[in-house]
Amino acid sequence: MSRIIRSSYTKQLEDDKKVEIQLKNLFTQQFSGDECDEPEEEAITKEDIYAERDRILVEAHREIEEQKVEFEKYRNEQLEMIEQLKQLWEEEKLVLEQQAYDTGFQQGYEEGIKKANADMAESLKTANEVIETSKQNAAAYIEEQERVILELSLTAAERIIGATLDRNDELFVSIVKRGLKEAREMKEIKIYVSPQYHNVVSNNRAELVEMFPIDVPLLIFVNEDLSSTESYIETNHGRIVISIDEQLHELRLKLNELLNSKD
């Protein structure tokens, strides 16, 4: 009887591997140095906010691509292992055939071939199951990390916008201007803002009025029921909400659209 050489190899993906997202701190200069020193004023613009958002997305894509490359490398290793098993089987098969032929025992030959075939089939089945399981685990891991990256991006954007508004009230005016662009065809404009930003918006009224024809009245009201960053525009055709939450909601939709477009 011949001795069947069996070889198997399995490899598991590291489920606990984490994706590190490094968020660029735009405000390190504000808190550096001695606590008694006068903090250095740093002007932060919308471009800085959008640039930070884009940097986060680029880093997220890079991390995802690295995960895909690692999985592809693992898959190729598994395929190579299968080829090695096939080659080993072919060599063993020749040995079995020669031994059976030399001994002249037809029954032993047939039994040897049958057992070798069964062993090889079992080895290939195990290898295929390992590859399929690894593929599913890798796909689920990458999808999970994409959602984590999305939430990190939104958290970073919310933190950046909130901190920037605390330091630069004028940024709120640019948010109002974005909402007014949607009301350019209206015949009457009423802006409702919280008490915190009423003076800021009122002081920039001349700049806002320039966005409309001279015969379109633009009025600014204070609404004490609004939170600090909430505001809306009343027109003759309805209401336009221009709060920070709406801006973040728009960002969330765009990020989800980006993830879904990869499918």
UniProtKB/TrEMBL annotation:
What stretch or stretches form a coiled coil here? 57-99
Transmembrane spans: none
Record keyword Metal-binding present: no
Biological process (GO) annotations held by this record are: bacterial-type flagellum organization; protein transport
The family database entries (Pfam families) matched by this protein are listed as: FliH
Q: Name one GO cellular component term.
A: cytosol
Transport keyword on record: yes
Keywords tagged on the record: Bacterial flagellum biogenesis, Bacterial flagellum protein export, Cell projection, Cilium, Coiled coil, Flagellum, Protein transport, Transport
Record InterPro entries: Flagellar_FliH/T3SS_HrpE, FliH_Bacilli, T3SS_Stator/FliH
Q: Where is the Flagellar assembly protein FliH/Type III secretion system HrpE domain?
A: 125-250
Q: Which NCBIfam families match?
A: FliH_bacil (TIGR03825)
Quote the function comment for this protein: Needed for flagellar regrowth and assembly.
UniProt family annotation: Belongs to the FliH family.
* The protein's name: Flagellar assembly protein FliH
According to its UniProt entry, this protein's organism is Ureibacillus endophyticus
